[in-house]
């Protein structure tokens, strides 16, 4: 049974903020407050990082199999409580229950993946070129880590960081997004039940992240920051990390191109875009932001897409049958409307959607735009909403130039049946991940991450645990 926790989780115990302050969490489908949560400050943050630092030596000394078993148990508990976790997520951030259930399965899998990785941490043994010395390379946990997550995947963004940190033997201070603290606290409860020792994971919730996170970054005790969120905040944290030369993993924003070539399977491409665009109501770093379609197929593609988008059921995510929930808050919804209004003023045509409905809730309808100019604001901004702008192209090289005309480089999607074109374009687009004839790239077994201003490092896959390990080498004369 899932208990709804609303206090700080430090040293294995639940406690209110030292100041007694709390902040409200609301349901974006109704605008109604659902809970209040402890509002931590610098004082609570200091207690959390002191605990993490004090726990680090004993945690690092645990056996890999011990840490692995904790993750296996937590994986099972997440699946056992899937319905409760899905409902908490839907209530605090709006995604439909079916999607929330999908995220629970995805999130749990990170724990299973890293349970398997925990016992495979290796090293290396070689000799120097002159044969005079042995080189013994070992791996050690980096040390106490600062984890910060966004609101859009409240469970999976947590497990994607906590999984490898536990596997590697790092302690943690964790600040979840202020819009979705309840999911993170439910996850802490599960880890404690799975046997995670007190002090390994410490959570401070707050609606004022600056002082809490700065306390950790300036403490001299944290050895690493792992951040998922906007590029703007990521840059701020990198500046803070520089002061103490902290290891930094940054999973930042995206501006994904979705490319439909003349030879593409059009039905498959529409299916793929429905996932790449509409997963999480478009509130994903991986969301297709710009849809480049070859001019010879754009009418056929646009008509099929508009039919699918107009048929989607928009509503409260907790209602059976809802396919598109509300956006996370009024500010997010208003930004999407502003981007659409700006594109239309620049000459774009609305094929469906395009207007904010009356409240309550922060709903925005699935929207398809055509004739979007390359200089429109939504071509250069993360839309973070259910809006698909279609841009025709004739020449492949010109399209690639436009696709790369962004400071971001997280993911790109490519639909073609020509293997040469697929390999050529995959190499030409400046991204960390390519979905070739698929609209979904996220998987715990794959190295997730971007190039350019989309971030540093990778999460998941074989390399995921490396982000939480330090390399040490011993020189031994033969
Ligand atoms: P955000 O950057 O506003 O917030 C992310 C986290 O940073 C939150 O926990 C927030 O409280 C915290 N934060 C905000 N200001 C801070 C400060 N001054 N100091 C320390 N921490 C601070 O992002 P968001 O709106 O929560 O999430 C959306 C963004 O996240 C989008 O840009 C999206 O692309 C990105 N994202 C990236 C990935 C990825 O894997 N690359 C995944 C999901 C989301």
Quick overview of this protein structure:
The protein folds into two domains: 8-252 and 454-477, Aldehyde Dehydrogenase, Chain A, domain 1; 256-443, 3-Layer(aba) Sandwich (Aldehyde Dehydrogenase, Chain A, domain 2). It is built from 13 helices and 22 strands. It has helices at 42-60, 64-80, 82-93, 97-118, 156-168, 181-193, 209-217, 231-243, 266-278, 298-310, 330-345, 396-403, 419-428; strands spanning 8-10, 13-15, 22-27, 32-38, 124-127, 133-141, 145-148, 172-175, 201-203, 224-228, 247-251, 256-260, 288-294, 349-352, 367-370, 387-393, 408-409, 411-415, 433-436, 451-452, 455-456, 469-477.
Describe this entry's structure for a reader.
This protein is an alpha/beta fold. Helix content is 37%, strand content 22%. The chain has helices spanning 42-60, 64-80, 82-93, 97-118, 156-168, 181-193, 209-217, 231-243, 266-278, 298-310, 330-345, 396-403, 419-428, and strands at 8-10, 13-15, 22-27, 32-38, 124-127, 133-141, 145-148, 172-175, 201-203, 224-228, 247-251, 256-260, 288-294, 349-352, 367-370, 387-393, 408-409, 411-415, 433-436, 451-452, 455-456, 469-477. The protein has a seven-stranded mixed β-sheet with strand order 14-15-16-13-12-18-19, sandwiched between helices. A six-stranded mixed β-sheet has the order 9-8-7-10-11-21, sandwiched between helices. Helix 2 (64-80) packs antiparallel against helix 4. The mean pLDDT is 98. Nicotinamide-adenine-dinucleotide (NAD) is lined by residues 148-153, 157, 175, 177-178, 209-210, 213, 228-230, 233, 236, 251-254, 285, 382, 410, 455. Nicotinamide-adenine-dinucleotide is lined by residues 148-153, 157, 175, 177-178, 209-210, 213, 228-230, 233, 236, 251-254, 285, 382, 410, 455.
